[in-house]
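User: Good morning. I'm curious how zinc ion would be positioned relative to this chain. Could you predict the structure with it bound?
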Amino acid sequence: MASELARIIEKSRRIVFFGGAGVSTESGIPDFRSADGLYSRSTGTRYAPEEVLSHSFFVRHTAEFFDYYRSHLLYPDARPNAAHLALARLEQRGRLTAVITQNIDGLHRRAGSKDVLELHGSVHRNTCVRCGRGFGLDAVLAADGVPTCACGGVIKPDVVLYEEALDPAVMDAAIQALRAADTVIVGGTSLVVYPAAGLLGAFGGDELVLINTAATDHDHLATLVVREPIGEALGAAVP
Ligand code: ZN
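Assistant: Good morning! Here's the predicted structure, ligand included:
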């Protein structure tokens, strides 16, 4: 018997998926903000993680930033899990119009999704702050200390740091996708991290599905709440 989630997906034509850290934890990437996540751990320095991952820290303590960034935010061996793969299948079948993600690991693209809106950027895109040349993740991983361009400029990850604004073009595309959607599936986020809750306000479609192992403040707004690990739920609903 098809689940309620499978039934909703079956009748939907313009699904948008909105995902948070919980989508990546099943690939072995820790959730920054959860109780046992990165932000509750010491950085091994006298700074808090939120401080190390801020724009001003990047500018003033670039070497320490990259030490922390490389050891805590980069997971080059992580692989897409059942949730990423199910969403890529939905897009290939013409049912899903966009994946909006708060994750920076690039796993949706690696799984084959094409229309991915990365609200907080991606570790796979890096740019020389001086000449604007683009680099992949390898340039950051391979560097000993601060990664630098041939021009001498620092190579900065295209990841939104604290004190930095989200890319307005990505935000706009996310709002357009949500406005045009008939169904939104939210997964792996409690919707408390900016701008998740606000963005969802753009959605005016029929079905709002929340997949999260814990309750969220938005459960009462959902037409369906699924209390299962996201890979399990999506993998079963999108065979
Ligand atoms: Zn350069």
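The beta strands are 15-19, 96-101, 116-118, 121-128, 134-135, 155-159, 183-187, 207-211, 224-226. The radius of gyration is 18 Å.
Let me know if you'd like a different ligand tried.
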